[in-house]
Every structure is written in C-alpha cells, then in structure tokens.
C-alpha cells in the first residue's frame, strides 16, 4: 500500500505541475503575454507541484518513522500478562517472532494461539495505520494543489518561493549528512574507548599476534585473545 501511495503522490505532483503551468498561461493571456508574469510558467508549475507533494511526503516520513514503535507498544500492551512479564531479552525474541509471523518468515518457536493473535493484531493495526496515512496524504496533496492553483496570480513570486524551498531542502540534506558523519565518528570513538579499556594501547600497537577470540562468559575456555596490530 505504501508503494502505491507514493506512486499516486508522484502522479498528483505531475498533474499539479501541468495545471500550474496551464494556469500561468491562462493568467498571461489576461494581462497581455508571458513577459508580464513575475516568473516563468515553469516556476508556477513547480510551485504547485511542491505544495502538492512536499507536505504529504513530510507527513508520510514522520508517520512511518513512529508507526512501528507505536504499533509495537499497542501489541505488547495487549499480550497476556504472563507474556508481558517476560524478561526483556525473551520479550524481544517474542516480538521478533510476531513480526516474522506477520511477514511470513520462519519463527524461532512454535506458534501458540497467543502469538498468532498478537500477529493478527499487529497486522490489523498496520493496515489501519496505512489506510489512515493514505487518506491523510491524499487529502493533503489534493488540498495543497487546489489551494495553490487558486492563489496563483500574475504577481505571485513563484520563482522566489520555489528557490527558497529548494534552498531549505538542500540545507536539510546537508545537515542530515553532517550529523550522520558526526554520529559515525562518535560511534567509532566510543567503541574504540571501550576496546582500549580492555586491551592496552601498547599491546594493540606493538603486539605481534592477532587472534581476536575472547570468551563471552566466565566459564568459557580461552578467556583472553591477542590483539596485536
């Protein structure tokens, strides 16, 4: 359903662009030609397309980002008490089994009636969420397109508005890229600090043997490894 929704939004955005251009040509005929418009017809079409597609895409992005967490919380809160009180590790495994059952993958344990009911509940909530999202996005896209087309005038500063939105999108993209890079660096740094708390720096830099095999539990054989670079 989500893929179909994005295809419909893409089609509506293209329609908005076409009608935005047609609207600009109609306005130009009333005032004596295209040179009297503030912007070229392309920008009128682009403005209509942006207000059609962008708000709906932003809504879909935020909705899908929080959908899984909310549905998971609702499904877990609806489980029988004996399952809700499981340790965190076992509860996560149970949740993975529920999701695998929904997606048709192999589960790690026998499917009990409780797990099957939870999987059905998860599927129904997902379908409901996608339906509400589709309706909201389509209403927002069509409304944005109609409202923009209605407000287009010869004096509309379409080029300025389109360029401003593009600048904001480029700024947002560069900001995400910067914070992603910072996150990668911090992740590597924190893991390196944890590593060097267990392995001395001198042993790593000047050691002549590399055998990164360490025991996870105290009762396992080979409780230390060699980490010479």
**Which series of helices and strands comes N to C?**
HHHHHHHEE
Q: What portion of the residues fall into strands of 2 or more residues? A: under 5%
Number of strands: 2
Please give the largest β-sheet: 2 strands, antiparallel
The whole-angstrom Rg is 28 Å
> Strand order across the biggest sheet?
1-2
Number of helices: 7
Dominant shape: flat
Low-confidence segments:
none
| Distance between the first and last residues' Cα | 51 Å
Helical residues, percent: over 70%
- Mean pLDDT metric: 86
Secondary-structure-derived class: mainly alpha
Structural features, described:
The chain has 229 residues and is mainly alpha-helical. It is built from 7 helices and 2 strands; from the N terminus they run αααααααββ. The chain has helices spanning 2-31, 41-77, 81-84, 88-103, 113-151, 158-198, 201-206, and strands at residues 210-211, 226-227. Strands 1-2 form a two-stranded antiparallel ribbon. Helix 1 runs parallel beside helix 5 and helix 2 (41-77) crosses helix 6. The longest helix has 41 residues, at 158-198. The radius of gyration is 28 Å and the shape is flat. The model has no long low-confidence stretch (mean pLDDT 86).
Write the layout of secondary structure elements.
Blueprint: H1 2-31, H2 41-77, H3 81-84, H4 88-103, H5 113-151, H6 158-198, H7 201-206, E1 210-211, E2 226-227
Antiparallel strand pairs: 1-2
């Amino acid at each position: 359903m989500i893929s179909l929704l994005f295809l419909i939004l893409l089609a509506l955005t293209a329609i908005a662009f076409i009608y935005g251009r047609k609207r600009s040509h109609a306005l130009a005929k009333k005032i004596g030609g295209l040179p009297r418009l503030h912007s070229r017809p392309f920008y009128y079409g682009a403005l209509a397309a942006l207000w059609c597609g962008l708000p709906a895409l932003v809504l879909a992005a935020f909705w899908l980002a929080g959908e899984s967490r909310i549905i998971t919380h609702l499904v877990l809160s609806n489980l029988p008490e004996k399952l809700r009180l499981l340790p965190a590790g076992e509860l996560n495994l149970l949740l993975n089994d529920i999701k695998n059952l929904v997606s048709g993958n192999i589960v790690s344990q026998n499917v009990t009636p409780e797990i099957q009911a939870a999987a059905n509940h998860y599927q129904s909530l997902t379908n409901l969420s996608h339906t509400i999202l589709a309706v909201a996005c389509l209403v927002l896209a069509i409304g944005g397109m109609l409202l923009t087309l209605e407000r287009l005038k010869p004096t509309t500063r379409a080029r300025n508005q389109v360029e401003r939105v593009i600048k904001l999108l480029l700024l947002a993209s560069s900001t995400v890229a910067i914070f992603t890079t910072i996150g990668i660096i911090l992740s590597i740094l924190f893991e390196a600090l944890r590593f060097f708390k267990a392995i001395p720096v001198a042993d790593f830099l000047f050691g002549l043997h590399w055998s990164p095999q360490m025991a996870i539990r105290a009762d396992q054989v080979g409780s230390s490894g060699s980490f010479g670079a």
